[in-house]
Amino acid sequence: MAIYANLSKALTQVWNPKKTRNAGGLWQKCPECGEVIHNLELGKNLKVCPKCDHHFTLSAAERIHNLLDPDSFEEFDANLISKDVLKFTGVLPIRIVSKAIRRRPE
Ligand SMILES: [Zn+2]
User: Fold this and answer.
1) Rounded to the nearest whole angstrom, what is the distance from the C-alpha of residue 42 to the centroid of ligand 1?
2) Residue 61: CB partners within 8 Å, gap ≥ 6?
3) What H or E segment, with its residue span, contains residue 27?
4) Cα 72 to ligand 1 centroid, rounded to whole Å
5) Full-prediction pTM beyond 0.70?
């Protein structure tokens, strides 16, 4: 049953990003230890909780910003999308999940 709970949580994040993401507030609550952390402190700590070392989710832009030199990243093929060549049959077709992920705000 744990696999269904994890799948349900993952799909909730895909379908309801506002419920699981910070909506632009100044503070975030660590889901692991409950510590309330200011976004500036969290950013300086590369989105790792200073109390329990929980790693918050990084967006693609945040990951690129953390890894590369400033202004050194040049994106190619931004409109490229994946295809379901294996015809994956999960709880939801991959084309629906992929479409939902593309519509997600950064
Ligand atoms: Zn924590």
Assistant:
1) 11
2) 106
3) strand 27-29
4) 32
5) no
